[in-house]
Amino acid sequence: MESLKVDGPSRSGLAPRPLTHRKPSTPMMPAFMTSAPGKVIVYGEHAVVYGKAAMAAAISLRSYLLVTALTKSQRTITLRFPDIGMEHSWKIDHLPWSAFSHPSKKKYYYDLVDKLDPELVEVMQPHLSVVSPKASPADKKIHQNAASAFLYLLLSLGSKSFSGCIYTIRSTIPIGAGLGSSASISVCLSSAILLQLRTLSGPHPDQPPEEAELQVERINRWAFVGEMCIHGNPSGVDNTVATCGKAVVFKRGDYTSAPTVTPVRNFPELPLLLVNTRQSRSTATEVAKVASLRKTHSSIIEPILEAIDKITESAYHLVSSSAFDSKKSGSVQKLGDLMKINHGLLAALGVSHPKLERIRELVESLDLGWTKLTGAGGGGSAIALLNSNATPSSLQGLQRQLDNEGFEKYQTTLGGDGVGVLWPAVLRSGSEDEGGEEIDQENFLNAKGIEGVEMLVGVGIGASEKREGWKFWSNVGPHVDDEGRQEYTSG
User: Fold this and answer.
1) Which residues, at least 6 apart from 416, have a Cβ–Cβ distance to it below 8 Å?
2) Cα distances (angstroms) measured from residue 458 to each of 294, 309, 409
3) Residue 110: which of 214, 238, 258, 240 has the closest Cα?
4) CA distance 357 to 376
5) Alpha-carbon distance 147 to 313, whole Å?
6) Going by C-beta distance under 8 Å and a sequence separation of 6 or more, which residues neighbour residue 307?
C-alpha cells in the first residue's frame, strides 16, 4: 500500500509508522432528484376575484431539483439556480438552528403551518442579505426570495446534524410569467427535504392510497410555506397544482379565509400551445381595471362574471363526465369552445391586449385550435388547446410566424403529473440490469437551455412517453369531503 513520508521520529522515540491514505468518506445518501410542474389558469380569470370559480391545470413545463450529498467533513449547504444566475453557500454550523428548534418555535414535518413566524423570518435576515450582493436590485430580490424559501424549509424541518448538500435547480418554466414557477420550485424543495428526513416512503405501485394522499398533503403544506416566503399571502392554488398535478377548481368567498379547492383528478392530458407575448403587464392594474368597470357598470359586468363562473362549472362537469373522451374531437371541441367564449368575455372586461388578439388570430386562421389569454391579461401569455388539424408541418408554419413577430412559443401538455421523484438520480433506457445514465452536478449544470434540461432529465410528455425511473404519486390530491370539496387551509 502506498505510504506517505513522515518527517522526524515519533514522540515515543520509536520509528514512525508509515501513514496510509485514509479511505475517502462517502456521501450519506445517493444523489436524487425531485420535479414539479408549472400551471396555467384554464378558465375563470378575474371572476375568481369576486368569489367565482376558476380552474387551473398542470403543464408539462417543469422545475427539476438535483440533491447531491457531501461527505461528513463537508459542512456546507449550497443552493444553485443557474437559470437566474444564483449560487450561494452557507456553513451549516453558522445557521440559526437554535432559534428554529426552540420549544416555542419548533415545527415538525406533520405540522400545519399557515403563517410565517416573524421572529424566525427576522433571524434569517443576516443569512439572506449576503446572497448575491452584487446583483441588480431586481435580481437580488428574486435570489433572496428563493434563498428565503429554501432556508425557512431547511431550518424548520432539518437540524444541525443535517449533512452537507448541494441543491441545484433547473427550470423549464418561464419565470415571472404567471405560470407558477415559484410554486414548482417550492414543491421540489419541500419534497426533497422531506425525502432526506425519510418521512416519505414512495411513491411506489403498492402504496396504499391513504398513505400516498397523506404524503402528498405534507409536501403541499410545506411547499405553501415556501410560497409564503416568496409571495407573502399566496392563494395556495399554484403549489396545490404543482404537487397534485392534473387540475383543480378553486373558489374564494372572501379574502379572510382560504379558498375551497376541488381536485379534478381525471383531467385529461391534452396538447397545448403556450405563447408568451413578451409584453410586460401588471396584475394589479388589470384587476383594478375590472373593478372600475364593475363599479361603473355593475348591471352589465356582474352577468359577465356570472357567465365566466358558469364556464368553469361547465368545464368541470364536462371533464368529470363518464362520456368525456379526450381522444374524440367532439369532447375536445366542447372544452375549446368554452375557452373561446371565456376569452371573449375577458376581452369584454378590457383585459386582453393587441398581442394576445394577434396570437388568437394566427392560431384560428390556421384552424389549429382554440385560444384564450391565461392569467391577468394585459400582455403575459396565451394558451391554445390544439385540435387534430395541428400537424407538425402546420405547427412549424405557426412557429415561423410567431418568431417573426417576436413571440415565444412552448409546445406543452395540459393536465400532466404532479410532483415526481428520481431516486437515485439515474435514468434507465431499459431494464435495471442494463444500468443507466447517472445525473451528476456537472452534466446537470451544463445542460443547455430548456431543450438540454428536458433531454437530460425530463420526465417525458404523455402517459406513453414517461422516462424510465421517474415515479409519481398518481391520482392523489388534497383530502376532500363527501361533496368532493376541500377547505384549503394548508396550501
Assistant:
1) 37, 58, 59, 60, 245, 246, 269, 461
2) 44, 35, 18
3) 214
4) 15
5) 39
6) 341, 345
**187: alpha, beta or left? (left if phi > 0; alpha if psi -120 to 50):** alpha
Output the nine-digit C-alpha cell for 77.
449547504
Nearest Cα neighbor of 281 from 213, 391, 355, 186 is 355
The answer to whether the peptide bond before residue 392 is cis (omega within 30 degrees of 0) is no
The values of phi and psi at residue 34, to 5°, are -125, 160
Number of neighbouring beta carbons within 10 Å of residue 489: 15
Active site residues: 238
Q: Tell which residue, 334, 34, 339, has the closest CA to residue 168.
A: 34
What CA–CA distance (Å, rounded) separates 304 from 157?
46
Task: Return the SS3 of 483.
Answer: coil
Question: Residue 99 is inside which H or E element, if any?
Answer: helix 97-101
Determine the Cα–Cα distance for residues 378 and 357; give it in Å rounded to an integer.
11
What whole-number distance in Å separates Cα of residue 464 and Cα of residue 7? 65
Nearest one of 148, 132, 169, 173 to 227, comparing CA atoms: 148
Each residue's pLDDT tens digit, 145-180:
999 999 999 999 999 998 899 999 999 998 877 899
Q: How many residues are given for the chain?
A: 491
Amino acid at 126: P
pLDDT in tens, 26-68: 456 899 999 999 999 999 999 998 999 999 999 999 999 999 9
Whole-number Å distance between alpha carbons of 312 and 291: 20
Measured between alpha carbons, how far is 162 from 264 in angstroms, rounded to an integer? 37
User: 308 in helix, strand or coil?
Assistant: helix
- pLDDT of 384: 96
pLDDT at 94 over 90: yes
φ/ψ region of 178 (left if φ > 0, alpha if ψ in -120 to 50, else beta) reads left
- Where are the alpha helices (H) located in 158-264, listed in sequence order? 181-196, 209-231, 237-244
Q: Are 154 and 193 in contact (CB under 8 A)?
A: yes
| pLDDT at residue 205, rounded to an integer | 81
The grid coordinates listed for 42 are: 384554464
